[in-house]
């Protein structure tokens, strides 16, 4: 469990940073939000970072670390009204990557647009059109903890560092293995301490 958490966490963080760098029109507003959310004790108030929430959700929709979601095993034979049937012990999955880029689910599905989520749903929200965290009682119980880590890391990085893609052309590459999407070798970020 921890092994899977580590890899999906760093992949999702990498995709979020790359997507933010590829869409610099959001960077200043995001930095303002992060700076305004900082408390006097030196920690971020993560619940007030609505744009960061929306960017994480949109990045995960366009660049999921897993192409499928909702892995389930049938416990009985079942036939749907249209005649399609599932046998006992069949394995079923939802094509999360395809669902996230389907125009019947999202307007302009291939365009990075965090506005579709801004002030509407939290990053951890469960949705049948967006089963990133799973659905029902089998949904990820650690999603709030994962979101806390991701938002904290991104807030600190955005507040203290200037970040940009080393090579815009190569950063979009991914390596796929089975159902996993891994940031490609060209996903290099240039990071330097911000001058405040």
Describe the structure.
Helices cover 34% and strands 16% of the residues. The protein is α+β, with helices and mostly antiparallel strands and 196 residues long. The chain has five helices and eight strands, in the order αααββββααββββ. The radius of gyration is 18 Å and the shape is elongated. Mean pLDDT is 86; it is low at 1-6. The relative contact order is 0.18. The protein has helices spanning 2-22, 27-36, 50-62, 96-100, 143-160; strands spanning 69-73, 78-79, 85-86, 91-94, 161-165, 174-177, 180-183, 189-193. The strands form four sheets. It has a two-stranded antiparallel ribbon with strand order 1-4. Strands 2-3 form a two-stranded antiparallel ribbon. A two-stranded antiparallel ribbon has the order 5-8.
Give descriptors for this structure:
single chain; elongated; alpha+beta; disordered N terminus; two-stranded antiparallel ribbon
């Amino acid at each position: 469990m921890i092994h899977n958490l580590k890899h999906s966490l760093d992949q999702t963080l990498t995709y979020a940073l790359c997507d933010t760098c590829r869409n610099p029109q959001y960077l200043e507003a995001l930095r303002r939000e992060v700076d305004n959310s900082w408390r006097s004790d030196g920690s971020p108030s993560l619940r007030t970072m609505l744009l960061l929430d929306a960017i994480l959700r949109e990045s995960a929709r366009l660049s999921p670390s897993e192409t499928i979601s909702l892995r389930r095993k049938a416990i009985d034979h079942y036939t749907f009204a249209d005649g399609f049937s599932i046998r006992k012990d069949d394995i079923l999955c939802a094509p999360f990557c395809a669902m996230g880029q389907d125009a019947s689910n999202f307007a302009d599905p291939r365009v990075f647009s965090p506005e579709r989520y801004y002030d509407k749903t939290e990053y951890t929200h469960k949705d049948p059109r967006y089963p990133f965290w799973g659905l029902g009682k089998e949904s990820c119980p650690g999603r709030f903890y994962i979101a806390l880590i991701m938002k904290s890391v991104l807030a600190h990085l955005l507040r203290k560092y200037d970040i940009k893609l080393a090579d815009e052309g190569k950063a979009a590459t991914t390596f796929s293995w089975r159902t996993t999407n891994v940031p490609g070798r060209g996903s290099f970020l240039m990071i330097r301490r911000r001058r405040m």
